[in-house]
Amino acid sequence: MLAEPHFNRHPGFWKMLTVAVFMALLGCLQAQEHQGHVSIILLGATGDLAKKYLWQGLFQLYLDEAGKGHSFSFHGSALTTTEKGQEFMAKVLESLSCPKDVAPPRCAELKDQFQQLSQYRHLKTSEDYLALNKDIEARVQREGLWEAGRIFYFSVPPFAYADIARNINSSCRPGPGAWLRVVLEKPFGHDLLSAQQLATELGSFFQEEEMYRVDHYLGKQAVAQILPFRDQNRKFLDGLWNRHYVERVEIIMKETVDAEGRTSFYEKYGVIRDVLQNHLTEILTLVAMELPHNVSSWEAVLQHKLQAFQALRGLQKGSAVLGQYQAYSEQVRRELQKPDSFHSLTPTFAGILAHMDNLRWEGVPFILMSGKALDERVGYVRILFKNRAYCAQSEKHWVTDQSQCLPRQIIFYIGHGELGSPAVLVSRNLFRPSLPSKSWKEVEGQPGLRLFGRPLSDYYVYSPVREQDAYSILISHIFHRRKGSFITTENLLASWVFWTPLLDSLVHEVPRIYPGGAENGHLLDFEFSGNQLSFSQQQLEQLVPGPGSVPKPSDFQVLRAKYRESPLISAWPEELIAKLANDIEATAVQAVRRFGKFHLALSGGSSPIDLFQQLAMGHYGFPWAHTHLWLVDERCVPLWDPESNFQGLQAHLLQHVRVPYYNIHPMPVHLHQRLCAEEDQGAQIYAEEISALVTNSSFDLVLLGMGPDGHTASLFPQSPTGLDGEQLVVLTKSPFRPYDRMSLSLPLINRARKVAVLVMGRMKREITTLVSRVGYEPKKWPISGVLPASGQLVWYMDYEAFLG
Ligand code: BG6
Q: Which residues lie below 8 Å from residue 467, measured CB to CB, with a gap of 6+?
């Protein structure tokens, strides 16, 4: 027999339930009627952003929320006189528009209501803020309301932030029980340090939860759909969203406008700070982060975002290509009253190659690109999948939703471009996606339209049911306290940690000049290989005065001569590196032929980087499988530290070639969780490893450099160890940071069959001249002690180091 339901046995149950439901409903209705008063203060109410988007966004908020129980007042404020401010506001409010489904008479009525609730006020001094506070309180009392909260929207330049924040904090906070939200617009700093300072300053006035930093791209419908899409399509994407399937990710924002009229801002920021550090980086984290179980928990999303930042590999100069549209410098000269000789180096175009060092994304290129004065306005994120299939049948028989030979891609189309509106597109041969049907609808593509090389009919295409402006969406999120669409302090600083080193390294970089618009042709096309990005086309003419009439490397031949009694090879840098790489390969091939293996000891620092890259890229005949790699010296930092020589080797060579991992011999500077402690005997351990594996401890080739003070390896002038004696490996001190080092000793270096010393750059000119004249004085100039006992020493110097 079935159990009798519990409530059937209690006749009073239904009565109680009815009363409870009634009370709850009544409670809800009452709460709706008295949801309190909200004051919204728009600072910078007469500015461009306010005019273009913010007033419209506030009107939309009023339309969406006013009928639901809240009452509102809107205060536009600026430094303009009351009269001018009022005049401006009247004009802007008159130009507001209603959604398409609101009939014109109703729209006029709503606009009228909104205008009644909006007033201009001059806000400058602390008295002005006190007066505002009083007015709000008086109004709330007069109308028998209670105050729900206040929103202060800072649409002002950042130098004004501190004063406004101080005034709000001291005289304009709402009373107990009511909330305060301050909305901040970028720029949030210029680099890590300035962002930290600004964050600390704001943090002294506001709680983190009170701050809403806007990145308006997070309000764009296609961007806001990335996480929900990933969540709702887990069953398809779980297996696909990773390095095994994804070929590359492109995050693109192209603009046709230029920076005219904004050069005073643009000169300080440039395209990377203006757009990549914020909009494109946010998108990158949404695509790359591990998906939280609950994508609507903003705390979980933030944690996953921060983890994504952690996994981003540091960018280097070679990870970027920069451009500047031709008219830019002239615009700057005109707008900022600069002399005719002024040339700006500010990039208005940038392409960046980023990588994530984690299991999901290892090796997948993430391309970020943005620029002004380009041929079209469009924004999108494109995830292109690998294609391993070969279709034996001819293309005319391929069926779009089945053929594995057609490209497979997912595109979050942010807007503009060929489509003209936001969309999510999924190749039909991937899967039919699921999107929230209330807000996204499947659409038919316009016939004849092609996107990313395929007719639109190749994709499932979804568009928003109601297209909305990003600012209206974000203003609604602020009102509803949906913090997930805003940038927290941690998030902001993580982004600056990522971008600042690259920005620093690009300060003196000359951008490629491009004509602007369709005339750019293929001038800005770029390509990547490994970690490097470069323009595809050689630049034919240099429009910015560069180094001028310096002859090209190919105009010169390699010069052979003697230096300190040993062979000297001198050339322009490119040729020199090519020659050295060839010589190393030839030595390696010979050693492997004779002994079955090749022991190569490499120096760190910046000079060999080009060599490593050369070896990594062009030397297919190199016997890497039989090569043992040793370190000449190491800094006493963990091996994963960017300062570690091993890191340089890893980044520029090891990750591109196939050396068996048991043939790689990093120096043991990090033992027992401490660095280069005598007691840990790291130097002895390394010496034993060398003795055990390298016949007679005689390396086949040692690559050295020479410092401006005559140091080589990590053997510095007056070093008490390593210049003579029995020890093969020693701990030393450097006069430069990091001070503690480990190094091969001179006696060990001098046992090598071949020693190559690479010296490059004008900075080395003086020491090159000096060392050419001195005898054997390793205490003063350790490099002068490099004299292989039975091996050969060869000097490789570029013309700048050798001829000055
Ligand atoms: C802003 C940048 O953040 O974004 C501008 O400061 C850029 O330089 C703008 O033009 C682009 O936004 P949207 O919404 O027009 O794509």
A: 221, 421, 422
